[in-house]
Amino acid sequence: GEDVEQSLFLSVREGDSSVINCTYTDSSSTYLYWYKQEPGAGLQLLTYIFSNMDMKQDQRLTVLLNKKDKHLSLRIADTQTGDSAIYFCAEILYSSASKIIFGSGTRLSIRP
Amino acid sequence: DGGITQSPKYLFRKEGQNVTLSCEQNLNHDAMYWYRQDPGQGLRLIYYSQIVNDFQKGDIAEGYSVSREKKESFPLTVTSAQKNPTAFYLCASSPIPDRTSGKRGEQYFGPGTRLTVT
């Protein structure tokens, strides 16, 4: 089946790390993505990971991939108020009509 | 600057009127997409196109129509048949995903159009 699942909400204290989780179902997908959506705006591609990798780090962002459990996570170090947004996990399905499947998004809120 | 533009940012219409949302890209992407986003919800695919003069229905195509006469443009018409048209509409474009060539096919999004129908 084609499904990407995320928890709906996450609240963290400013300065702490945020970990946003995602599970996917298609074992043949080769790329997984994280997007960020600020209020009233479009989605911004944050990072991606290839399925032969376990981890990818980009400044404050760390992506971890557990292929056995089909689990993807995004860790944001030193979370700041500007990180408040909705974060979408997505996977690409290669087929005759390749497409990207998006999760429902996790709303990250930052408390002082 | 390369990117995707959507206009207008806010659109108001009376019930029963058709309305067309604009989407233009200069990224030379072959594929373009329209999504609908309702408050507190994720993205739902309306239509997509991988080549000029061809497009396919997504998950919620009823009440919508599109055209793809040029590679750069993919306008969406919200018709009076769409029962709940008030929503945030997002356009995206991407290269065609291709496993053998390694094309990732990640989508790039426009800023969105918020449509309110009363």
Report on the structure:
The complex is a heterodimer of chains A (about 110) and B (about 120). Chain A is about 0% helix and about 60% strand. In chain A, a hairpin with a 4-residue loop joins strand 7 (about 60-65) and strand 8. With about 110 residues, chain A is mostly beta strands. The radius of gyration of chain A is 14 Å and the shape is globular. Chain A has strands at about 5, 10-15, 20-25, 30-35, 45-50, 55-60, 60-65, 70-75, 85-95, 100, 105-110. Chain B has about 120 residues and is mainly beta. In chain B, strands 2, 4, 5, 6, 9, 10 and 11 form a seven-stranded mixed sheet that branches. A four-stranded antiparallel sheet of chain B has the order 1-3-8-7, with no helix packed on it. Chain B starts with a strand and ends with a strand. The model of chain B has no long low-confidence stretch (mean pLDDT about 95). At the A-B interface, strand 4, strand 5 and strand 10 of A face strand 5, strand 9 and strand 10 of B.
Topology:
The complex is a heterodimer of chains A (112) and B (118).
Chain A: E1 4-6, E2 9-13, E3 18-24, E4 31-37, E5 43-50, E6 55-58, E7 61-66, E8 71-76, E9 85-93, E10 99-102, E11 106-111
Parallel strand pairs in A: 2-11
Antiparallel strand pairs in A: 1-3, 3-8, 4-5, 4-9, 6-7, 7-8, 9-10, 9-11
Chain B: E1 4-7, E2 10-13, E3 19-25, E4 31-37, E5 43-51, E6 54-57, E7 64-66, E8 76-78, E9 87-94, E10 108-109, E11 113-117
Parallel strand pairs in B: 2-11
Antiparallel strand pairs in B: 1-3, 3-8, 4-5, 4-9, 5-6, 7-8, 9-10, 9-11
Short description:
The complex is a heterodimer of chains A (112) and B (118). Chain A contains no helices and 11 strands. Chain A has 112 residues and is mainly β.
Uncertain ranges of chain A: none
Largest sheet of chain B: 7 strands, mixed
Mean pLDDT over all positions of chain A: 91
What's the SSE pattern of chain A?
EEEEEEEEEEE
Number of strands of chain B: 11
Number of helices of chain B: 0
Distance between the termini of chain A: 40 Å
Distance between the termini of chain B: 36 Å
Provide the helix percentage of chain A. under 10%
Shape of chain A: globular
Greatest chain-chain contact: A-B, 22 and 27 residues
Give the number of DSSP strands of chain A. 11
Bin the strand percentage of chain B: over 45%
Low-confidence stretches of chain B: none
Oligomer: heterodimer
Largest sheet of chain A: 6 strands, mixed
- Indicate the percent of residues in helices of chain B: under 10%
Structural class of chain B: mainly beta
Helix and strand pattern of chain B: EEEEEEEEEEE
